[in-house]
Each structure stands twice: as C-alpha cells, then as structure tokens.
Amino acid sequence: MQTLTKQLTETGLRDRILTDQQIKRLLTGTDQRRHHLVNRAVKADELVRLRRGLYVLADELREHPIHPFAVAQMLAPGSYVSLETALAFHGWIPEAVYTTASIVPGRKAKEFRNEGLGLFNFHPLAIQQGSFLELVRRVEASGQSFLVAEPLRALMDLVCLRKVEWQGFAWLEQGLRVDVEALNKAIGAELRTLKDVYKHERMRNFISELEHSLGLVVRHD
Predict the structure, then answer these.
(1) CB atoms < 10 A from the CB of 90, how many?
(2) In whole angstroms, what is the distance from residue 31 CA to residue 24 CA?
(3) What are phi and psi of 206, to 5 degrees?
(4) Which residues sit opposite 137 in a β-bridge?
(5) Phi/psi at 148 (nearest 5 deg)?
(6) In 3D, which of 112, 47, 123 has the Cα closest to residue 82?
(7) CA atoms within 13 A on the CB side of 164
(8) Residue 178 burial (CB < 10 Å; 0-12/13-18/19+)?
(9) I want to staple 4 with a disulfide (CB 3.0 to 4.6 A). Which of 15, 41, 82, 210 is the partner?
(10) Would you give the distance in Å from CA 103 to the centre of its chain?
(11) pLDDT tens sequence across 165-191
C-alpha cells in the first residue's frame, strides 16, 4: 500500500472526496514530495484522479463505493442532480441513465468524463434569483451526501432545458415515458411553487397546462 493511501485509511478519510489542499494538510514535507506521493498512488491504481486537484480512493480501498452523485457535487460545487438522472433515480422513467446530469448556477455548461465513473454534464438554466434550490433535497446514501431535484423539479428542469412547448401528455408519456401514475399524484402546491422558479413565460404556461390536465386547478371560462 502506498504511503498516501495508508495515511488516508488510517486517518478516516478513505471515503472522502479529496482536494489538493486537504492532501497538503495531511502530508508533511515539500510540495514536490506531495506531488510524488499522489502520482505514485495514482499509478498504483489506489488513488483515482477525478480531475486536476480532485481525488478519491479506489473502490476496493473504501468502505462504500463512490456514488456518482457525490462526485458531481464536487466537480461543480453548488450544483444539484436533475433532468433524466433524477427522474430515473426517483423511478419516474424506466430507462437506466448512464450520464450524471446536473443543474449548475451561472451561465456556463460543463462536461467531465472519467474512465471509471462515466460522463458528468452540468447545465445552466434561466432561474429566478433565490429559487435555485426550490424542490431540491439533500439525500444521504452509503455515508455520502448530495443534492437531488424532486421528480417534478427534475421534469420541469428538463422541459426548460429542451425548450419544450406544451403538447399534451404525449411528450411526457410517449417521448419521455414518464410514469403517468406518479405524475397524477403531483401536488398542486409544488407545481405552483415551480411557476415562480423559471424566468421564461413559456415555463409558466407549460406548468399551467400541466395543472389543468392533472385537474389541480379549475378552469374559468
């Protein structure tokens, strides 16, 4: 076992996602020594470099396998998992999703690929100030913590990202294969909350049409 790997396991950091600064505080000596020990652990396949300055121990050295959602939070701090990834996580769509998709604050889209952990996409959306984390909750799994959109928020994020106009349930049921039974249990208060999340009038119109279709509001002709 490499020197760095041994220190990480002995100090209770085996399940942490680690930055260069955290490793620097752990190791004594020069920056050159630290770089040497990091590179040796990476070459020995004991330490996995997620991107420059961000690392995790290999799964066989951890108590719990690294969760891709936790990785996403570290790759783009402030982001939350959403879109098809969150819909699959909540069981609202039947297909397995192999890309971890997140919503990120700001205006810049990002993408990271890791050979062992897969593809991570980060998308900005036009969201009202102060509403970024509406209907987003913290999830704990295997000692790891990450932010995940509630299913309705994930669905509306997807509508917003794809610039979809209301087309009835066809796009939801056939295009996305959303579990309509789950959607029919949607809470009216959540949909009303989501009307104030997005900046575009198109989103408010879409949510209003969805409300009417679900029978959550009464039409006034």
Answers:
(1) 17
(2) 8
(3) -60, -45
(4) 148
(5) -135, 135
(6) 123
(7) 21
(8) buried
(9) 41
(10) 7
(11) 998 888 888 888 898 888 888 788 899
Sorted by sequence, the CB contacts under 8 Å of residue 42 that are 6+ apart come out as: 48, 49, 55
Residues 6+ apart with CB under 8 A from 47: 2, 4, 5, 38, 41, 55, 56, 57, 58
Strand runs labelled E in the chain: 18-19, 47-51, 54-57, 80-81, 99-103, 110-114, 118-123, 136-141, 144-149
Tokens encoding 37:
């020990």
8-state DSSP, 136:
E
- What are the backbone dihedrals phi and psi of residue 100, each rounded to the nearest 5 degrees, phi first? -90, 110
Candidates 1, 84, 16; CA nearest to 56 is 16
Strand partners, 51: 54
The whole-angstrom separation of Cα 115 and Cα 146 is: 21
Q: Which two tokens stand for residue 127?
A: 């969201």
pLDDT per residue as tens digits for the range 114-158? 888 899 999 999 999 999 999 999 999 878 899 999 999 999 999
pLDDT above 90 covers a percentage of the chain that reads 60
Which residue in 210, 160, 166, 205 sits closest to 188, CA to CA?
A: 210
Cα Rg of the chain, angstroms: 21
Q: What angle do CA 98, 85, 130 make, to 5 degrees?
A: 145
Residues 6 or more apart whose CB falls under 8 angstroms from that of 151 comprise: 86, 87, 90, 92, 182
